[in-house]
Specification:
The structure is a homodimer.
Chain A lengths: L1 H4 L14 E6 L4 H11 L7 E6 L2 H12 L2 H4 L3 E6 L5 H15 L6 E6 L17 H25 L7 E7 L12 H20 L4 E6 L6 H9 L3 H12 L6 H14 L6 E4 L4
Parallel strand pairs in A: 1-2, 1-4, 2-3, 4-5, 5-6, 6-7
Chain lengths: ~280, ~280
């Protein structure tokens, strides 16, 4: 696996994340799932993985896959936490499970990957979002939960001399540029980028990265290509495919892990796949 | 009043907003109240004002003040709508009142000023916002409602050849820059800027402006100065006061109205008081 995904980018030079607690949201598919598989190869034995998503079946599938890898056989502990992060009880449940299982294990790395996200209904335009509840449900899952979960995780793992703490916000070009018919997604991503910038300002010991992974070959891009209400945008996304500009999750994840392992980015920055 | 507030900036050259429906949120005090008083002087008789805020007493006080002005005597109709925009029923109620009272009156201008906002609890840092409900309540009032209300108002007043439609987002420097201990406020303002950028992309006939009014002498600045958790920021705000850099609402409003009347800004842009 290592040879396939990290030909010469990470891992091959012996760098790793040490003994870590690693929490990945939206881990059941797409980019989150890929991150889980790649990071697993870079953790020391005794590390603990928390994979969070709404779909329990897919999480358990991933858990089984991980158990069969070199990392799994070497003692990586993986916990699946089935949760809808848009709901307070579920966010609290995730934290309870992390606290119970991991708050007293001896680690030198904390990695939180805030990856969970939804595109929202991109078939409609901003002027159609008259229902406050619809907008709130989107914001809860995509914006508020990233703050609550991050704050709670930092509470479970407070600042400590020998603990390297890193929080990743999976961002998007949409955090910087408006795209017609994507009002919820753009708004949510812009909100998140700012939220993590403030966090980085406040916690100088913390490493905070907003990473825009580029256009990835995932269910989300398929949804974007088929459902976007804006005809021009729909065409642009189709063109990405035909011009071979869509990235595999592995390509993008490889760059993310390279950046995290090098650990030289300015905390709070927005970094795009194409900038690395 | 006109002489006092618009020495030579607006109004004096005869420009006005025509016969308008004008909706201002957060109109009971501070910048919103000031905008209401200034715009009243620039509306043609038969125009209709909707003043929205949580405090009915203060709104009615403003209504009485407006009735006593030249504009009030010339036939400006003012409606107070007591509403908490963080709640769906209240947003829906605002729209119902606007629809019933104004959807069939003959106007040539629609002006929606999304001004309502709260600073949030600035005494604490991002890492303390573990409660999803607290974050959601903030986002509902400060982000989601701006979209729902704007979308609903645009539905009541659809595109029409002879109707000039303008939506203002009262923004902040915080939409662009992170400030420690202001995670909710910065996140909300960044989210709103993007939301209105997308709206501007989608509706080319609409005029959309995000206006950052500068540091204003309001209750919000007092709260910021006394309650901010970050000591450095607290000091900076105090310094604004001692260096005379705090603006009156009238100074900032005057620039906003100048920009709106000139109507030359690129739709969707973020404009700061200091840029004008």
């Amino acid at each position: 696996m290592q040879d396939k995904y990290f030909p010469d980018v990470v891992g091959s030079d012996g760098r790793d994340f040490g003994k870590a607690v690693c929490i990945i949201t939206g881990a059941s598919k797409g980019f989150g799932r890929c991150i889980a598989k790649e990071i697993a190869l870079l953790l020391k034995p005794g590390s603990m993985f928390f994979l969070v998503a709404r779909s329990g079946d897919k999480l358990r599938e991933l858990q089984a896959e991980l158990a069969a890898t070199r990392a799994g056989k070497a003692g990586l502990i993986t916990r699946c936490v089935v949760a809808d992060l848009g709901l307070k009880d579920d966010v609290d449940q995730v934290i309870r499970e992390i606290r119970e299982a991991a708050s007293d294990i001896d680690i030198n790395q904390l990695l939180l990957i805030n990856n969970a996200a939804s595109l929202g209904d991109v078939s409609r335009f901003a002027k159609s979002f008259t229902d406050l509840h619809e907008v709130n449900a989107y914001m809860s899952f995509n914006v508020s939960s990233a703050l609550s979960l991050t704050a709670s995780v930092l509470e479970v793992f407070p600042r400590r001399q020998d603990l390297h703490r890193c929080v990743v916000n999976v961002s998007s070009l949409c955090a910087l540029q408006p795209f017609p018919s994507w009002v919820l997604y753009c708004t949510g991503k812009a909100a998140r980028d700012m939220m993590f910038k403030v966090l980085a300002e406040e916690e100088p010991d913390l490493r905070v990265l907003s990473y825009a992974p580029g256009p990835l070959d995932t269910d989300m891009l398929l949804q974007a290509r088929t459902e976007s209400g804006d005809a021009g945008l729909k065409k642009s996304i189709a063109a990405l495919h035909s011009q071979g500009e869509v990235l595999t999750c592995e390509e993008s994840c490889s760059k993310l892990l390279k950046v995290l392992l090098e650990d030289k980015y300015p905390s709070g920055t927005h970094l795009d796949y194409h900038d690395v």
